[in-house]
Amino acid sequence: MSSPRPNNTVVKVDFSPSPKGATTAHASWRPSLPPIAQRLGWHDSERLFFQVFKNSLQPMSITTLAEGRYIDVNPSFLSLLGYERHQVIGKSSLELGIWKNSAQRAELVRRLKSDGLVRNFETALRGAKDQTLIWLSSADLVDIDGEPCILVISDDITEQRRSEQQLRDVSARLIRAQEEERNRIARELHDGLNQKLALLCVDLQEFGQIHGDLSQQLSAFSLRLQDVSADVHGLSHRLHPSKLDYLGLLPAVKSLCHELSGRRGLQIEFVNNNDVAEFEHLDKELALCAYRVVQEALSNVIKHSGAVTARVQLRCRKQVLYLLVTDSGRGFSVDVAKQKGRLGLISMQERLRLANGKLIIRSRPNRGTQIEARIPLPN
Ligand SMILES: Nc1ncnc2c1ncn2[C@@H]1O[C@H](COP(=O)(O)OP(=O)(O)OP(=O)(O)O)[C@@H](O)[C@H]1O
Ligand SMILES: [Mg+2]
User: Fold this and answer.
1) What are the residues whose beta carbon lies below 5 Å from ligand 2 (ion)?
2) Range with the lowest mean pLDDT among 188-192, 200-204, 215-219, 370-374?
3) Is 338 a pocket residue for ligand 1 (Cβ < 6 Å)?
């Protein structure tokens, strides 16, 4: 059995103890050998290796480097892929159609040739019954009877990836359901309650005109009613930003900054680095995602930062939408914040993940916070 040198040439590694003071090429490999291999003779080491190979619950295989022909595979490999031993040995992985994407094998070989080893390489494989398996593999170059071969040890992470996907689907459905519900409540508030309040205002004003002696009290009532109506309107707008639907992302974010400016003494500057037209054909779901991220980031600035100034920046470059919300407040530790189990940052992250985007939080105590969201735009 042999192992690659750092310069990627394959050399024989002798597991037997070397005589004292030996300075052969392979002697320099000895410190990296596990202590057990240093104590065992070559045959014992080999036997130990094949015992591990046979009994390991991790699928293992040895294939030729050139063609990917199977020289040996262990029982876990066979049972997970659903093959009988005779169906595999001597055949190549490409022949058996084991790679779902044959370019992955080419990539593995390329990396092995350049680095001598590959770690945590995620592969999608096809089993005998056409089932898909996801394996996380580590590969090493080994020498079998003078032929360069690949020893692959994998973890079957199919179930893990499936659960992650299911979780992602659930969060996508939850976010969609939440938006639909917000939308419904916003419409009810706007079209139902707010219209009734507006009519009541008009009735009160008319009543005041008829009963001149009560007009002062009535106009005070009317003002309070207008105030309630404005609150309901604001609430409906926050629940579902109708401006986003009618005017698009840019005006909606600008209006949000304007609306929130002045809360707790915070002044919000809005900066747009692009032409308005560039945001016009933005997909509705992406626009809503971007809007919600800015809304949550600003709400956090108001609630937690203590800052007096903040800046919201929108930028479109190379098919990526960048959103930046920067404040000059007290900052926070992201690790500590995550342990609080609150929903704002998680929800931003989740929304962006569903849009294939990314959330970057830059914050340091007393040095302010910058929330950056990157959303790739479809062509
Ligand atoms: N701009 C900011 N400046 C200072 N601290 C912040 C800022 N943004 C977030 N934080 C800190 O991060 C924590 C987590 O934020 P997150 O938005 O997840 O939760 P929250 O705002 O407390 O509650 P909610 O679930 O209602 O959003 C906050 O409690 C706060 O301590
Ligand atoms: Mg929050």
Assistant:
1) 300, 344
2) 215-219
3) no
Joined tokens for residue 211: 């009963």
With a 6 Å cutoff on the Cβ, whether 343 touches ligand 1 is yes
pTM score of the predicted model: 0.68
| Residue indicated by tokens 């698009």 | 248
What angle (nearest 5°) sits at the alpha carbon of residue 290, between those of residues 257 and 347? 105
248-299 confidence digits (pLDDT tens): 899 999 999 999 998 888 999 999 877 767 777 888 889 999 999 999 999 9
- Which of 304, 325, 364 for mutating ligand 1's site (highest number of atoms within 8 Å of CB)? 304
Mutual orientation of helices 215-239 and 158-187 as an angle, nearest 10°?
160
Q: Candidates 342, 348, 366: which one to mutate for ligand 1, based on the most atoms within 8 Å of Cβ?
A: 342
Q: Whose CA is nearest to atom 17 of ligand 1?
A: 344
Q: Please tell me if the CB atom of residue 290 comes closer than 6 angstroms to any atom of ligand 1.
A: no
Architecture per CATH, domain 241-379, reads as 2-Layer Sandwich (3.30)
For the chain, the structural domain boundaries read 2-159, 160-240, 241-379
Q: How many Å lie between the centroid of ligand 2 and the Cα of residue 301?
A: 9
DSSP code of residue 274:
S
Q: Does domain 2-159 have CATH number 3.30.450.20?
A: yes
pLDDT tens digits for range 231-248: 888 888 888 888 888 888
Query: Is the shortest distance between the CB of 345 and ligand 1 below 6 Å?
Result: yes
Say if CB 377 and CB 370 are below 8 A apart: no
Rounded Cα distance between 17 and 41, Å, is 7
